[in-house]
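PROTEIN–LIGAND DATA SHEET

This sheet pairs a single protein chain with one bound small molecule, flavin mononucleotide, given as SMILES. Inputs appear in the order they were entered. The predicted three-dimensional arrangement of chain and ligand is reported afterwards as a token string under its own label.
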Amino acid sequence: MDDTATHPSNRTDTLPRGGGGTRSDNLRPAPAAHLRPAPADHPIHPLIASRWSPRAIDPRPVEPELICRLFEAARWAPSSFNEQPWVFLVASRRESPEWHERLAGFLKEGNAWARSAPLLIASAFRTTLSRNGKPNTQARRDLGAAEENLCLQAWASGLVTHQMGGFDQERLARELFPDSPDADLEPGTMIAIGYPGDPAALPDDLREREGRPRKRKTLDAFVFGERWGAPAPFLPVSEDG
Ligand SMILES: Cc1cc2nc3c(=O)[nH]c(=O)nc-3n(C[C@H](O)[C@H](O)[C@H](O)COP(=O)(O)O)c2cc1C
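PREDICTION REPORTED AS:
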């Protein structure tokens, strides 16, 4: 029997809802043009399989209640010593158009498409442990965990997200970090967020990229047993060897 099909956590109609949520908080499927489910080799949760990073994002504003939900999801990510070293600068175009424009100004040319997103985030992380002032060697990965929580919650709420390392990190740190009470910040990513947009509105090259098959390395390329490079024994033997 296929446990994954019957396990409650795999039924999208039973995805947990936030505190005080209503029935409409359940997983909202993306429009057809935005469906590019991962061709997974092993069954995985539909939320993980369906999330991807579109560039077509609708300029329509995101409701504050939904924005809060994203950061609530980030908040509950695990972190080393429960330090929660993440910090997010958020720009919503509807509320603060000039701030949105300023944050968008840090994007590299190749990410210019992200300017249309109604919500832009610049993430950062504290590099010292608040408990003893020593370096927090896990802080960047803790931020990554928080961002993944945020991205999955966004997708479950009918929003799309696109993380970006392509921004002027040095200038952003120089111009924005001095105003922070934390002297130990390092830049993380920028994230474009909004409702799914129309891929037809993208330039040809980007529209073509949106339609490409989603690909990942196979498990035997990165899951090893005793020896580096030798697939772990529980992995099925691949057809080509
Ligand atoms: C830390 C990080 C940085 C990224 N930087 C960029 C970027 O600058 N521009 C871009 O278009 N996509 C960027 N991406 C998106 C990745 O290209 C994308 O996640 C990857 O190709 C897998 O595709 P998927 O998210 O649709 O599954 C970034 C993703 C991550 C996690």
